[in-house]
Amino acid sequence: xSEGATSTRRRGEPWVWFVVCSxxxxxxxxxxxxxxxxxPDAMSRVANAYYVLFSRDPHLAAxxxxxxxxxxxxTLPLLVFSPWFPALASLGAAGTIVxxxxxxxCVAVMAVMLRDLGVTSAWTRNVLTGLxxxxxxxxxxxxVGASEAMLMLTCSYTALFLLRWLQQRxxxxxxxxxxxxxxxxxxxxxxxxxxxxxxxxxFVVGVVRAPQQRWAYGVNDAAxxxxxxxxxxxxxxxxxxxxxxxxxxxxTSQYGNSAQVTSGQASIESVTGxxxxxxLFYLAEQLVHVAPLAVPLTLVTLVVxxxxxxxxxxxxxxxxxxxxxxxxxxxxxxxxxxxxxxxxAAIPLGxxxxxxxxxxxxxxxxxxxxxxxxxxxxxxxxxxxxxPRWGREEALAREVAQAGxxxxxxxxxxxxxxxxxxxxxxxxxxxxxxxxxxxSSHPHSYVVTTDRDFAxxxxxPHAAGVTYALLASPQNAPSDAxxxxxxxxxxxGGGVATxxxxxxxxxxxxxxxxxxx
Length: 517
Description:
Blueprint: H1 3-34, H2 40-54, H3 70-79, H4 87-90, H5 93-116, H6 122-133, H7 136-143, H8 147-168, H9 172-185, H10 191-209, H11 214-244, H12 249-252, H13 257-263, H14 265-272, H15 276-290, H16 294-308, H17 314-332, H18 346-361, H19 364-386, H20 392-403, H21 405-418, E1 426-428, H22 430-439, E2 446-447, H23 454-459, H24 461-464, E3 468-472, H25 481-485, H26 489-492, E4 497-504, E5 510-516
Parallel strand pairs: 1-2, 1-3
Antiparallel strand pairs: 3-5, 4-5
Helix pairs in contact: 1-5, 1-6, 1-7, 2-3, 2-5, 2-22, 3-5, 5-6, 5-7, 5-8, 5-18, 6-19, 8-9, 8-10, 8-17, 9-10, 9-11, 10-11, 10-17, 15-19, 16-18, 17-18, 18-19, 21-22
Protein backbone atom coordinates (compact mmCIF):
# COMPACT_ATOMS: atom_id res chain seq x y z
CA UNK A 1 0.00 0.00 0.00
CA SER A 2 1.33 3.44 -0.94
CA GLU A 3 2.25 6.01 1.70
CA GLY A 4 -0.62 8.26 0.57
CA ALA A 5 -3.16 5.48 0.89
CA THR A 6 -1.84 4.60 4.34
CA SER A 7 -2.11 8.22 5.43
CA THR A 8 -5.69 8.44 4.14
CA ARG A 9 -6.61 5.26 5.99
CA ARG A 10 -5.15 6.60 9.22
CA ARG A 11 -7.10 9.84 8.87
CA GLY A 12 -10.27 7.84 8.28
CA GLU A 13 -9.90 5.60 11.33
CA PRO A 14 -11.17 8.18 13.86
CA TRP A 15 -14.25 8.91 11.79
CA VAL A 16 -15.10 5.22 11.59
CA TRP A 17 -14.77 4.94 15.36
CA PHE A 18 -16.93 8.04 15.85
CA VAL A 19 -19.76 6.84 13.60
CA VAL A 20 -19.79 3.24 14.82
CA CYS A 21 -19.53 4.06 18.52
CA SER A 22 -22.12 6.85 18.37
CA UNK A 23 -24.63 4.51 16.75
CA UNK A 24 -23.90 1.66 19.17
CA UNK A 25 -24.04 3.90 22.25
CA UNK A 26 -27.25 5.49 21.00
CA UNK A 27 -28.80 2.07 20.45
CA UNK A 28 -27.83 0.90 23.92
CA UNK A 29 -29.19 4.13 25.34
CA UNK A 30 -32.55 3.66 23.64
CA UNK A 31 -32.73 0.07 24.90
CA UNK A 32 -32.13 1.30 28.46
CA UNK A 33 -34.69 4.10 28.15
CA UNK A 34 -37.32 1.73 26.78
CA UNK A 35 -36.96 -0.24 30.01
CA UNK A 36 -37.07 2.86 32.21
CA UNK A 37 -33.42 2.43 33.20
CA UNK A 38 -33.07 6.19 33.51
CA UNK A 39 -30.46 8.13 35.46
CA PRO A 40 -32.06 11.14 37.21
CA ASP A 41 -28.93 13.28 36.75
CA ALA A 42 -29.11 12.78 33.00
CA MET A 43 -32.85 13.47 32.75
CA SER A 44 -32.54 16.59 34.91
CA ARG A 45 -30.06 18.09 32.42
CA VAL A 46 -32.66 17.60 29.68
CA ALA A 47 -35.30 19.15 31.93
CA ASN A 48 -33.17 22.25 32.46
CA ALA A 49 -33.17 22.83 28.72
CA TYR A 50 -36.86 21.99 28.41
CA TYR A 51 -37.81 24.83 30.80
CA VAL A 52 -36.03 27.26 28.49
CA LEU A 53 -38.35 26.33 25.61
CA PHE A 54 -41.63 25.04 27.00
CA SER A 55 -42.31 26.36 30.49
CA ARG A 56 -44.89 29.09 31.18
CA ASP A 57 -42.00 31.54 31.45
CA PRO A 58 -39.51 30.51 28.75
CA HIS A 59 -36.18 32.29 29.15
CA LEU A 60 -32.53 31.28 28.90
CA ALA A 61 -31.84 31.72 32.63
CA ALA A 62 -34.38 28.95 33.29
CA UNK A 63 -31.54 26.56 32.47
CA UNK A 64 -30.44 27.11 36.08
CA UNK A 65 -27.12 27.76 37.76
CA UNK A 66 -26.69 24.78 40.07
CA UNK A 67 -25.18 22.65 37.30
CA UNK A 68 -22.90 23.66 34.45
CA UNK A 69 -24.89 24.64 31.35
CA UNK A 70 -23.25 22.96 28.36
CA UNK A 71 -24.90 19.49 28.64
CA UNK A 72 -28.31 21.16 28.77
CA UNK A 73 -27.54 23.71 26.05
CA UNK A 74 -26.50 20.88 23.74
CA THR A 75 -29.98 19.32 23.97
CA LEU A 76 -31.85 22.51 23.06
CA PRO A 77 -31.80 21.93 19.27
CA LEU A 78 -33.15 18.40 19.78
CA LEU A 79 -35.90 19.45 22.19
CA VAL A 80 -37.34 21.77 19.55
CA PHE A 81 -38.70 18.58 17.97
CA SER A 82 -40.12 17.13 21.21
CA PRO A 83 -43.75 18.11 20.37
CA TRP A 84 -43.51 15.61 17.47
CA PHE A 85 -41.18 13.14 19.23
CA PRO A 86 -42.21 13.27 22.91
CA ALA A 87 -39.61 10.71 24.02
CA LEU A 88 -36.92 13.34 23.47
CA ALA A 89 -38.26 14.97 26.63
CA SER A 90 -40.38 12.42 28.48
CA LEU A 91 -37.64 9.77 28.49
CA GLY A 92 -34.71 12.17 28.28
CA ALA A 93 -33.74 10.75 24.89
CA ALA A 94 -32.31 14.12 23.82
CA GLY A 95 -29.63 13.70 26.47
CA THR A 96 -28.88 10.18 25.28
CA ILE A 97 -28.33 11.38 21.72
CA VAL A 98 -25.91 14.06 22.94
CA UNK A 99 -23.98 11.71 25.21
CA UNK A 100 -23.76 9.03 22.49
CA UNK A 101 -22.22 11.56 20.10
CA UNK A 102 -19.84 12.74 22.82
CA UNK A 103 -18.87 9.16 23.64
CA UNK A 104 -18.19 8.42 20.00
CA UNK A 105 -16.16 11.61 19.72
CA CYS A 106 -14.10 10.69 22.77
CA VAL A 107 -13.27 7.27 21.33
CA ALA A 108 -12.21 8.89 18.05
CA VAL A 109 -9.93 11.37 19.83
CA MET A 110 -8.36 8.53 21.82
CA ALA A 111 -7.51 6.79 18.54
CA VAL A 112 -5.78 9.95 17.30
CA MET A 113 -3.85 10.38 20.55
CA LEU A 114 -2.60 6.80 20.46
CA ARG A 115 -1.23 7.46 16.98
CA ASP A 116 0.40 10.71 18.13
CA LEU A 117 1.99 8.86 21.07
CA GLY A 118 3.73 6.51 18.67
CA VAL A 119 1.42 3.50 18.39
CA THR A 120 2.16 3.07 14.70
CA SER A 121 0.70 -0.41 14.30
CA ALA A 122 -2.88 -0.05 13.06
CA TRP A 123 -3.75 -3.42 14.61
CA THR A 124 -2.48 -2.44 18.05
CA ARG A 125 -4.01 1.02 17.88
CA ASN A 126 -7.44 -0.23 16.84
CA VAL A 127 -7.51 -3.03 19.42
CA LEU A 128 -6.61 -0.57 22.18
CA THR A 129 -9.24 1.88 20.94
CA GLY A 130 -11.84 -0.89 20.79
CA LEU A 131 -11.03 -2.02 24.33
CA UNK A 132 -11.40 1.57 25.50
CA UNK A 133 -14.75 1.85 23.71
CA UNK A 134 -16.20 -1.19 25.50
CA UNK A 135 -15.15 -0.22 29.02
CA UNK A 136 -18.23 -0.31 31.26
CA UNK A 137 -18.09 3.31 32.35
CA UNK A 138 -17.41 4.53 28.81
CA UNK A 139 -20.39 2.61 27.44
CA UNK A 140 -22.84 3.54 30.18
CA UNK A 141 -21.85 7.19 30.44
CA UNK A 142 -22.21 7.49 26.67
CA UNK A 143 -25.55 5.68 26.60
CA VAL A 144 -27.50 7.15 29.53
CA GLY A 145 -27.16 10.87 28.79
CA ALA A 146 -24.75 11.57 31.65
CA SER A 147 -22.51 14.64 31.54
CA GLU A 148 -19.37 12.48 32.01
CA ALA A 149 -19.33 11.64 28.30
CA MET A 150 -19.17 15.33 27.38
CA LEU A 151 -16.54 15.94 30.05
CA MET A 152 -14.38 13.13 28.66
CA LEU A 153 -14.76 14.49 25.12
CA THR A 154 -13.75 18.03 26.09
CA CYS A 155 -10.89 16.71 28.23
CA SER A 156 -9.73 14.44 25.39
CA TYR A 157 -9.76 17.41 23.02
CA THR A 158 -7.72 19.38 25.54
CA ALA A 159 -5.23 16.56 26.08
CA LEU A 160 -4.81 15.99 22.34
CA PHE A 161 -3.75 19.55 21.61
CA LEU A 162 -1.68 19.78 24.78
CA LEU A 163 0.17 16.67 23.57
CA ARG A 164 0.74 18.25 20.17
CA TRP A 165 2.02 21.46 21.76
CA LEU A 166 4.43 19.48 23.92
CA GLN A 167 5.64 17.64 20.81
CA GLN A 168 5.68 20.46 18.24
CA ARG A 169 5.72 23.74 20.23
CA UNK A 170 3.18 25.45 17.97
CA UNK A 171 1.43 28.15 20.08
CA UNK A 172 -1.75 27.75 18.03
CA UNK A 173 -2.26 24.41 19.76
CA UNK A 174 -2.50 26.26 23.08
CA UNK A 175 -5.54 28.13 21.76
CA UNK A 176 -7.22 24.75 21.32
CA UNK A 177 -6.07 23.72 24.79
CA UNK A 178 -7.67 26.81 26.32
CA UNK A 179 -10.87 26.30 24.33
CA UNK A 180 -11.08 22.70 25.49
CA UNK A 181 -10.59 23.70 29.13
CA UNK A 182 -13.29 26.35 28.86
CA UNK A 183 -15.76 23.89 27.34
CA UNK A 184 -14.85 21.28 29.94
CA UNK A 185 -15.56 23.72 32.77
CA UNK A 186 -18.94 24.59 31.26
CA UNK A 187 -19.64 20.85 31.39
CA UNK A 188 -18.52 19.90 34.92
CA UNK A 189 -16.76 21.70 37.75
CA UNK A 190 -13.90 19.22 38.15
CA UNK A 191 -12.47 20.60 34.93
CA UNK A 192 -11.17 23.43 37.11
CA UNK A 193 -8.60 21.01 38.55
CA UNK A 194 -7.47 20.09 35.04
CA UNK A 195 -7.16 23.78 34.16
CA UNK A 196 -4.88 24.45 37.14
CA UNK A 197 -2.68 21.46 36.29
CA UNK A 198 -2.51 22.28 32.57
CA UNK A 199 -1.74 25.97 33.02
CA UNK A 200 0.99 25.16 35.55
CA UNK A 201 2.49 22.55 33.19
CA UNK A 202 2.41 24.93 30.23
CA PHE A 203 4.03 27.68 32.29
CA VAL A 204 6.87 25.43 33.51
CA VAL A 205 7.51 23.94 30.07
CA GLY A 206 7.40 27.41 28.52
CA VAL A 207 9.98 28.67 30.99
CA VAL A 208 12.29 25.70 30.44
CA ARG A 209 12.04 25.85 26.65
CA ALA A 210 12.51 29.59 26.23
CA PRO A 211 15.85 30.64 24.74
CA GLN A 212 15.65 33.98 26.58
CA GLN A 213 13.23 36.00 28.70
CA ARG A 214 12.09 32.74 30.22
CA TRP A 215 9.44 34.17 32.55
CA ALA A 216 7.85 36.17 29.76
CA TYR A 217 7.62 33.10 27.55
CA GLY A 218 6.13 31.06 30.37
CA VAL A 219 3.52 33.68 31.21
CA ASN A 220 2.62 34.11 27.55
CA ASP A 221 2.14 30.37 27.00
CA ALA A 222 0.15 30.02 30.21
CA ALA A 223 -2.11 32.90 29.13
CA UNK A 224 -2.89 31.18 25.84
CA UNK A 225 -3.90 28.04 27.70
CA UNK A 226 -5.62 29.68 30.66
CA UNK A 227 -7.47 32.75 29.47
CA UNK A 228 -10.30 30.97 27.60
CA UNK A 229 -10.89 28.85 30.70
CA UNK A 230 -10.79 31.93 32.94
CA UNK A 231 -13.29 33.70 30.68
CA UNK A 232 -15.68 30.71 30.82
CA UNK A 233 -15.38 30.28 34.58
CA UNK A 234 -15.64 33.98 35.40
CA UNK A 235 -18.45 34.55 32.91
CA UNK A 236 -20.51 31.71 34.35
CA UNK A 237 -19.92 32.84 37.94
CA UNK A 238 -20.75 36.50 37.21
CA UNK A 239 -23.90 35.56 35.33
CA UNK A 240 -24.97 33.40 38.26
CA UNK A 241 -24.29 36.23 40.71
CA UNK A 242 -26.26 38.76 38.67
CA UNK A 243 -29.28 36.53 38.10
CA UNK A 244 -29.59 34.37 41.23
CA UNK A 245 -27.40 36.29 43.68
CA UNK A 246 -24.69 33.71 44.28
CA UNK A 247 -21.37 33.01 42.57
CA UNK A 248 -21.50 29.21 42.81
CA UNK A 249 -25.02 27.90 43.29
CA UNK A 250 -23.87 24.28 43.45
CA UNK A 251 -22.37 25.06 46.87
CA THR A 252 -25.00 27.45 48.22
CA SER A 253 -28.33 26.37 46.71
CA GLN A 254 -30.69 24.08 48.59
CA TYR A 255 -30.67 21.96 45.42
CA GLY A 256 -26.89 22.00 44.92
CA ASN A 257 -24.35 19.22 45.27
CA SER A 258 -23.33 20.26 48.78
CA ALA A 259 -26.92 20.17 50.06
CA GLN A 260 -27.61 16.84 48.36
CA VAL A 261 -24.49 15.21 49.81
CA THR A 262 -25.34 16.53 53.27
CA SER A 263 -28.89 15.17 53.15
CA GLY A 264 -27.70 11.83 51.80
CA GLN A 265 -24.68 11.43 54.06
CA ALA A 266 -26.16 8.67 56.20
CA SER A 267 -27.10 6.65 53.13
CA ILE A 268 -23.62 7.12 51.62
CA GLU A 269 -21.81 6.12 54.80
CA SER A 270 -23.96 3.02 55.23
CA VAL A 271 -22.14 1.61 52.19
CA THR A 272 -18.77 3.35 52.10
CA GLY A 273 -18.05 3.83 55.80
CA UNK A 274 -17.72 7.12 57.64
CA UNK A 275 -14.02 7.62 58.34
CA UNK A 276 -11.30 8.80 55.99
CA UNK A 277 -9.70 5.36 56.03
CA UNK A 278 -12.99 3.72 55.00
CA UNK A 279 -13.54 6.22 52.18
CA LEU A 280 -10.00 5.75 50.85
CA PHE A 281 -10.44 1.98 50.91
CA TYR A 282 -13.74 2.33 49.07
CA LEU A 283 -12.08 4.52 46.41
CA ALA A 284 -9.31 1.96 46.02
CA GLU A 285 -11.89 -0.80 45.53
CA GLN A 286 -13.64 1.22 42.82
CA LEU A 287 -10.40 2.10 41.05
CA VAL A 288 -9.15 -1.49 41.08
CA HIS A 289 -12.33 -2.55 39.31
CA VAL A 290 -12.63 0.39 36.90
CA ALA A 291 -9.01 0.71 35.73
CA PRO A 292 -6.57 -1.44 37.73
CA LEU A 293 -3.69 -0.69 35.35
CA ALA A 294 -4.10 3.08 35.33
CA VAL A 295 -2.07 4.09 38.37
CA PRO A 296 0.85 1.63 38.00
CA LEU A 297 1.19 2.30 34.26
CA THR A 298 1.05 6.05 34.85
CA LEU A 299 3.83 5.81 37.45
CA VAL A 300 5.97 3.74 35.07
CA THR A 301 5.27 6.23 32.30
CA LEU A 302 6.40 9.15 34.45
CA VAL A 303 9.66 7.37 35.30
CA VAL A 304 10.32 6.55 31.64
CA UNK A 305 9.48 10.11 30.60
CA UNK A 306 11.86 11.47 33.25
CA UNK A 307 14.68 9.25 32.01
CA UNK A 308 14.00 10.23 28.41
CA UNK A 309 13.42 13.89 29.31
CA UNK A 310 10.14 13.64 27.39
CA UNK A 311 7.17 15.82 28.31
CA UNK A 312 4.65 14.23 25.91
CA UNK A 313 2.99 11.81 28.40
CA UNK A 314 2.37 14.69 30.80
CA UNK A 315 -0.58 15.76 28.64
CA UNK A 316 -2.79 12.88 29.76
CA UNK A 317 -1.57 13.07 33.34
CA UNK A 318 -2.25 16.81 33.63
CA UNK A 319 -5.78 16.57 32.24
CA UNK A 320 -7.20 13.21 33.27
CA UNK A 321 -5.01 12.77 36.33
CA UNK A 322 -6.16 16.11 37.72
CA UNK A 323 -9.84 15.30 37.13
CA UNK A 324 -9.45 11.91 38.81
CA UNK A 325 -7.54 13.41 41.75
CA UNK A 326 -10.21 16.09 42.24
CA UNK A 327 -13.09 13.61 42.21
CA UNK A 328 -11.33 11.26 44.62
CA UNK A 329 -10.26 14.06 46.94
CA UNK A 330 -13.77 15.52 47.21
CA UNK A 331 -15.15 12.11 48.13
CA UNK A 332 -12.37 11.48 50.65
CA UNK A 333 -13.27 14.79 52.28
CA UNK A 334 -16.96 13.87 52.42
CA UNK A 335 -18.13 16.29 49.72
CA UNK A 336 -19.22 13.82 47.06
CA UNK A 337 -21.54 10.85 46.62
CA UNK A 338 -18.63 8.74 45.40
CA UNK A 339 -20.51 7.30 42.42
CA UNK A 340 -18.40 4.87 40.44
CA UNK A 341 -18.75 7.03 37.31
CA UNK A 342 -16.54 9.61 39.02
CA UNK A 343 -13.63 7.19 38.50
CA UNK A 344 -14.08 7.38 34.74
CA ALA A 345 -11.04 9.62 34.13
CA ALA A 346 -8.81 6.71 35.18
CA ILE A 347 -9.73 4.85 31.97
CA PRO A 348 -8.26 7.33 29.44
CA LEU A 349 -5.41 8.02 31.87
CA GLY A 350 -4.38 4.36 31.80
CA UNK A 351 -4.95 4.02 28.04
CA UNK A 352 -2.67 6.96 27.22
CA UNK A 353 0.03 5.65 29.55
CA UNK A 354 -0.21 2.29 27.81
CA UNK A 355 -0.02 3.94 24.40
CA UNK A 356 3.09 5.90 25.37
CA UNK A 357 4.89 2.81 26.69
CA UNK A 358 4.05 0.86 23.54
CA UNK A 359 5.28 3.72 21.37
CA UNK A 360 8.54 4.01 23.31
CA UNK A 361 9.32 0.29 23.51
CA UNK A 362 8.43 -0.52 19.89
CA UNK A 363 8.48 -4.22 20.71
CA UNK A 364 5.65 -6.42 19.46
CA UNK A 365 5.75 -8.69 22.50
CA UNK A 366 5.41 -5.67 24.79
CA UNK A 367 2.42 -4.35 22.85
CA UNK A 368 0.76 -7.79 22.92
CA UNK A 369 1.38 -8.07 26.68
CA UNK A 370 -0.27 -4.72 27.42
CA UNK A 371 -3.20 -5.38 25.08
CA UNK A 372 -3.83 -8.75 26.74
CA UNK A 373 -3.60 -7.14 30.18
CA UNK A 374 -6.16 -4.49 29.23
CA UNK A 375 -8.49 -7.10 27.73
CA UNK A 376 -8.19 -9.31 30.81
CA UNK A 377 -9.11 -6.48 33.20
CA UNK A 378 -12.01 -5.09 31.15
CA UNK A 379 -14.64 -7.45 32.68
CA UNK A 380 -13.85 -6.05 36.14
CA UNK A 381 -15.57 -2.78 35.23
CA UNK A 382 -18.73 -4.57 34.16
CA UNK A 383 -18.64 -6.64 37.34
CA UNK A 384 -18.38 -3.44 39.40
CA UNK A 385 -21.35 -1.89 37.58
CA UNK A 386 -23.44 -4.95 38.43
CA UNK A 387 -22.39 -5.02 42.10
CA PRO A 388 -24.50 -2.76 44.37
CA ARG A 389 -21.57 -1.96 46.67
CA TRP A 390 -19.61 -0.24 43.91
CA GLY A 391 -22.31 0.46 41.31
CA ARG A 392 -24.70 2.08 43.79
CA GLU A 393 -26.23 4.45 41.25
CA GLU A 394 -26.72 1.66 38.74
CA ALA A 395 -28.31 -0.61 41.35
CA LEU A 396 -30.70 2.19 42.30
CA ALA A 397 -31.66 2.71 38.65
CA ARG A 398 -32.52 -0.99 38.34
CA GLU A 399 -34.52 -0.89 41.55
CA VAL A 400 -36.46 2.21 40.48
CA ALA A 401 -37.24 0.69 37.08
CA GLN A 402 -38.49 -2.55 38.61
CA ALA A 403 -40.70 -0.59 41.01
CA GLY A 404 -42.30 1.33 38.13
CA UNK A 405 -41.37 4.80 39.40
CA UNK A 406 -41.09 6.46 35.99
CA UNK A 407 -44.21 4.71 34.72
CA UNK A 408 -46.02 6.03 37.79
CA UNK A 409 -44.75 9.55 37.17
CA UNK A 410 -45.92 9.44 33.57
CA UNK A 411 -49.31 8.33 34.89
CA UNK A 412 -49.32 11.35 37.21
CA UNK A 413 -48.70 13.59 34.20
CA UNK A 414 -51.47 11.93 32.19
CA UNK A 415 -53.97 12.17 35.05
CA UNK A 416 -53.21 15.84 35.57
CA UNK A 417 -53.51 16.50 31.84
CA UNK A 418 -56.94 14.84 32.00
CA UNK A 419 -58.08 17.51 34.46
CA UNK A 420 -57.78 20.04 31.61
CA UNK A 421 -56.06 22.51 33.92
CA UNK A 422 -55.71 26.12 32.89
CA UNK A 423 -52.29 27.71 32.52
CA UNK A 424 -50.50 28.18 35.81
CA UNK A 425 -52.97 26.21 37.92
CA UNK A 426 -50.54 23.58 39.31
CA UNK A 427 -47.55 24.63 41.39
CA UNK A 428 -44.64 22.23 41.87
CA UNK A 429 -40.93 22.14 42.60
CA UNK A 430 -39.37 20.70 39.44
CA UNK A 431 -36.13 19.91 41.23
CA UNK A 432 -38.06 16.74 42.09
CA UNK A 433 -41.07 16.66 39.75
CA UNK A 434 -39.17 17.15 36.50
CA UNK A 435 -40.11 13.65 35.20
CA UNK A 436 -43.78 14.57 35.56
CA UNK A 437 -43.26 17.95 33.90
CA UNK A 438 -41.33 16.40 30.99
CA UNK A 439 -44.12 13.84 30.43
CA SER A 440 -46.94 16.38 30.48
CA SER A 441 -48.74 17.36 27.28
CA HIS A 442 -49.63 20.70 28.87
CA PRO A 443 -46.45 22.07 30.48
CA HIS A 444 -47.97 25.56 30.70
CA SER A 445 -50.34 24.20 33.34
CA TYR A 446 -47.47 24.20 35.82
CA VAL A 447 -45.93 27.00 37.85
CA VAL A 448 -42.37 25.75 38.33
CA THR A 449 -39.34 26.90 40.27
CA THR A 450 -37.64 28.35 37.20
CA ASP A 451 -40.57 30.71 36.52
CA ARG A 452 -39.80 34.26 37.58
CA ASP A 453 -43.19 34.54 39.29
CA PHE A 454 -42.82 31.28 41.24
CA ALA A 455 -42.10 32.94 44.60
CA UNK A 456 -45.10 35.28 44.25
CA UNK A 457 -47.40 32.42 43.21
CA UNK A 458 -46.21 30.31 46.13
CA UNK A 459 -46.76 33.14 48.60
CA UNK A 460 -50.34 33.77 47.43
CA PRO A 461 -51.67 30.89 45.31
CA HIS A 462 -55.23 32.28 45.09
CA ALA A 463 -54.12 35.64 43.76
CA ALA A 464 -51.92 33.90 41.20
CA GLY A 465 -54.69 31.58 40.03
CA VAL A 466 -53.01 28.45 41.41
CA THR A 467 -55.48 25.67 42.22
CA TYR A 468 -53.29 22.64 42.93
CA ALA A 469 -49.95 21.75 44.50
CA LEU A 470 -48.05 18.65 43.37
CA LEU A 471 -45.34 17.28 45.63
CA ALA A 472 -43.52 14.13 46.67
CA SER A 473 -42.99 12.76 50.15
CA PRO A 474 -40.39 14.69 52.21
CA GLN A 475 -37.99 11.73 52.33
CA ASN A 476 -37.87 11.79 48.52
CA ALA A 477 -37.95 15.59 48.22
CA PRO A 478 -36.14 16.97 51.30
CA SER A 479 -35.93 20.56 50.02
CA ASP A 480 -39.26 20.86 48.20
CA ALA A 481 -40.05 24.57 48.08
CA UNK A 482 -43.83 24.03 48.24
CA UNK A 483 -43.61 21.85 51.35
CA UNK A 484 -41.24 24.35 52.98
CA UNK A 485 -43.68 27.20 52.32
CA UNK A 486 -46.57 25.20 53.79
CA UNK A 487 -45.20 22.79 56.42
CA UNK A 488 -47.27 19.63 56.71
CA UNK A 489 -48.79 20.06 53.25
CA UNK A 490 -47.76 16.61 52.06
CA UNK A 491 -48.85 14.89 55.27
CA UNK A 492 -52.31 16.38 55.74
CA GLY A 493 -52.72 19.54 53.66
CA GLY A 494 -51.09 21.81 56.24
CA GLY A 495 -54.42 23.45 56.96
CA VAL A 496 -54.48 25.11 53.52
CA ALA A 497 -55.40 22.31 51.10
CA THR A 498 -57.30 19.05 50.70
CA UNK A 499 -56.08 15.86 49.08
CA UNK A 500 -57.12 15.57 45.43
CA UNK A 501 -55.05 12.62 44.26
CA UNK A 502 -52.30 10.18 45.21
CA UNK A 503 -49.97 7.89 43.27
CA UNK A 504 -47.47 5.33 44.54
CA UNK A 505 -44.99 2.91 43.03
CA UNK A 506 -43.87 -0.51 44.31
CA UNK A 507 -41.07 1.06 46.40
CA UNK A 508 -43.50 3.31 48.22
CA UNK A 509 -42.42 6.48 46.42
CA UNK A 510 -45.52 8.67 46.73
CA UNK A 511 -46.83 11.72 44.91
CA UNK A 512 -49.79 13.71 46.14
CA UNK A 513 -51.93 16.38 44.55
CA UNK A 514 -53.53 18.89 46.91
CA UNK A 515 -56.23 21.42 46.08
CA UNK A 516 -55.90 24.76 47.86
CA UNK A 517 -58.97 25.59 49.96
